[in-house]
Amino acid sequence: MIPKIVVVDDDATTRLLLETHLSKSGYDVHCDEDAAGLRETLQRREFDLLLLDIYLPDGNGIELIDEIHESLPDLPIIIITAYGSIECAVDAMRKGAYDFCPKPIDFNRINVSVKNALDHSALKKEVTTFKRACRNQLCDLIGGSPEMQVVFQIIETVAPTNAPVMITGESGTGKELVARAIHKLSPRKNRELIDVNCAAIPKELMESELFGHERHAFTGANNRYLGRCERAHETTLFLDEVSEMDINLQAKLLRFLQDFTFYRVGGKEKIVSDTRIISATNREPLEAIKSNFLREDLYYRLNVVRIPVPPLRERSEDIPILTEHFIKKYSELNGKRFQEIDTETLDVLCVYSWPGNVRELENCIHQAVVLNDGLMLQREMLPEPIRSTHTDVPDITRLGKKNKSISSASTSDSSAEEKIIPLEYLERKGIEEALAKTNGSVAKAAAGLRVSPATLYRKMREYNLKLKRNK
To answer: Is residue 159 part of a domain?
Structure first.
């Protein structure tokens, strides 16, 4: 792909020289003469590099750097400056400019500077892509499992937009953290997210809580009250457990979502609120509609983008890194010395079903850290019934259907290929043998196989190898 460069300089000769030279060098070049033209150009097209003069008829190039990087943080900028403006160029680089080139233009220097800036930008993009593929955390959300990587990707895609988002998942999975991550990565991040727990506020007070009320609107209303919708102007409104809202009030919420206008209770003034809506529910939305907990028309307003958050039992490979995070967090908060967890205890945590999801795991570690002392968290420190969870060696004599078909295919085939053992069969057998030799300890088996426990749990799920619990 041909790199695209935008040149901004109020001098027509300089623009023409740069455009001619860079075009001959194989670049796609666009020129503007002032800041207003640059702003319009950046809204219409994407560029790989900006060459920016410091002195423009309608603005200062140095001041433009912050403005440009606010919306395009990865766009490299090369400052073009006159001989007497070297100090200004240094200031510009401190603000984030990649390089500067003095006037009159030295085209050899321009060639080197442009090539280095583009190469550096490409390398940063590769590093960012690699980090995203390997990361275990996004904002306050933790998880390296494939399921959480999908969640992370949706969050990053939808955050810059104004599209309504509905987050679904069981209690304790981290739906509020997802909502806060979307807000933190959005253009509205500089204002506080406004949240309302629809399950915690009595239905008699909910309308006033959402839309506010005027003085004397009802008995006890001695002052005007600004509701959550009004306070959420130019920020994000998070409706937690929205399916618990009274069905009649849902109709009023739907009316607000149609044009984002409302009246305070007892008021006559129409109020406009520029807000972004994120909602969450621990019910399956379609089941909630059938059970008359959620209006169907409201659902379609809220569910423009849906983010299902997986339960912890479906991403058990995240348990080791979550446990490590909570041990560190609560040891620091409570002045404890815990630094790690022993392998047997980690296996217990990985086998337990966690009906309360991440919230239950966090409470478990919090309690264990507060009530005990030491450097290593051990099984006897865990609360019941988690402590009593037993881990057995999986039934390694019973192969999955997939491996049976592989085995029968290889024996029935009379060609030379029947002597080649499929790689996935060897991998499965290796995992089975490691678990058998370590008496079912995932942590020890992972160490012996020289992989992380998270990787081993992912492989176990892939091959349908599950540790059984004693009844």
So the answer is: yes
